[in-house]
Amino acid sequence: MAEMHTPRSLIVTFYGAYGRAFEGPVPVSALIRLLGAAGVDAPSVRSSVSRLKRRGFLLPARTADGSAAYDLSEEARQLLEDGDRRIYGASNVSEEWLVAVFSVPEQERHKRHLLRSRLARLGFGNVAPGVWIAPAHLAEETGHTLARLHLTAYVELFRGAHLGFAPTAEAVARWWDLTALAKQHEEFLDLHEPALRALQSGPKPTPEEAYRGYLLALDSWRRLPYADPGLPRELLPADWPGDRAAAVFTELHERLRDTGAGFAEP
After folding, report:
1. How many angstroms separate the Cα of 141 from the Cα of each of 4, 69, 75, 124, 240?
2. Residue 92's pLDDT is what?
C-alpha cells in the first residue's frame, strides 16, 4: 500500500467521514478549505469533483445563500453506508460462506470483466472461473453492489458451508492471496503506527491536526477491510498482522475523529 492519497480518494474519504454531517450540500469553498488542510490544492479539488460528478457520485447543488456546492447522489449514500459497516463495524465472523456463480454471454463479455473486478473489490476470493466466495456477512452489501451496477441478471448467490475436500484453511489460502493481504496490513502499520505512538506520548492535537491525521489514516485504512473481507481468524496464519492493524486504526479513530470534527464543522 504505497501512501498515495489522490485528491479524488480524499474527497470520497472526506464525505464518508465528515461531509454527511453538513446540513445540505457541501459548498465548494468548504471542500477547497478542508482538502487544502490535507495538502490538496484548489485546482485539483475542482477537477476531482468534476470527475466524481461525471461518475454520478456527486450532484451539483446550491447552498441556501446560492453558493456552488455538491451533494451526494443516492447511490453514493448507499455506497458510503455499506462502507460504514465494513470500515467501522465489528467483525462479523460466520462459519457460512457466500458463493457467487455467474455466467455472461460472450457478446457481453465486458460485463464479465466488470463482475470479476467488482467481486474482487468486495473482497471475494476466486474458487474457479465464474465461481467466487466470501464470508456470508457480505451478502447484503454484495446485493446492493450488483443491483447498483445492473448485474443481478448474470449472478446467482448461495450461502452454505465448505464441505471439502481440502481443509478449509488450505482452501482459503488458494482462494485469497494471503501473503499480499498481510503485506497491505504491514504497510498500513509502517505508515500509521508511528503516528499513533506520537499521539500516545505527545500533547493532544489541535482540531486541524486531528482532522488531517484522521483523514489520511482513514484514506489508507478504508481499502483494507475490502481487500481482507474478515476471514475467520482460525483460518489465517498465526502471525496475521490484520489484528494489530485494526487495533491501530481503531485507536486512531477514537483519538482523532471527534476532535477533527471541530475543524470540519459545516
Report:
1. 26, 29, 13, 12, 25
2. 60
